[in-house]
Design brief:
This protein is an alpha+beta fold and 193 residues long. It has 5 helices and 7 strands.
Length: 193
């Protein structure tokens, strides 16, 4: 069955890329970048060397699980700078996980610049994915330090779970290059702002 490009497919996992909800005139200069020059830097940390795609941190990365028309869940892992925190003193956490059931596609939110399809799940197992995501996404968030890596981990683990449920092997997950994907997604996002 094929779907028009503008219509989201049922039982499909998407990655969302958005800009912060701020007045456009205050953030426009941040995204005025030649996206062909996006590079990768190697960071040395306590857990070894990691790669970081320059510019990816200027976007907010999330997950959208679309069940059917008017029914989906949007999972987010957002950074809150200390100066923006409005809660009780002493309880500040830099990263906050949230999920919300939505009736409209994230595409309709003005700050979403990209909706990348990750996997279309067969109807036979699609209904069970919501419970898996509701369990797994906050679990990954409890240890994550960046939203792009959190979203990538959720997507890859979901693909592995679907393959296991279908009793197949997802070779794409094994060969997946997260850095290359992030570079291409970031280039796409800059062009869409």
């Amino acid at each position: 069955m094929s779907y028009p490009t503008q219509q989201l497919q049922p039982f499909t996992l998407y990655m969302t890329i958005s800009v912060p909800e701020a007045p456009p005139h205050t953030i426009a200069h941040i995204y005025d970048v030649d996206s062909s020059n996006i590079g990768v830097v190697h960071l040395q940390g306590s857990e070894g060397t990691s790669q970081h795609v320059v510019g990816s941190e200027k976007f907010e990365w999330g997950i959208y699980w679309h069940r059917e028309l008017g029914d989906g869940t949007w999972y987010n892992f957002r950074f809150t700078p200390p100066e923006m925190y409005k809660g009780p003193p002493g309880l500040y956490q830099p990263w906050i996980y949230s999920q919300v059931t939505v009736k409209q596609s994230p595409r309709l939110h003005h700050h979403v610049v990209g909706l990348l399809r990750i996997i279309r799940v067969p109807d036979t197992i699609g209904s069970g994915i919501t419970a898996y995501l509701d369990w797994m996404a906050p679990l990954i968030a409890s240890k994550a330090k960046r939203d792009d890596l959190w979203a990538m981990s959720v997507c890859l683990r979901t693909r592995k779970y679907v393959a296991r449920e279908r009793k197949t092997e997802d070779k794409g997950v094994e060969r997946f290059d997260a850095t290359l994907f992030t570079v291409e997604a970031t280039q796409f996002a800059y062009r869409e702002v």
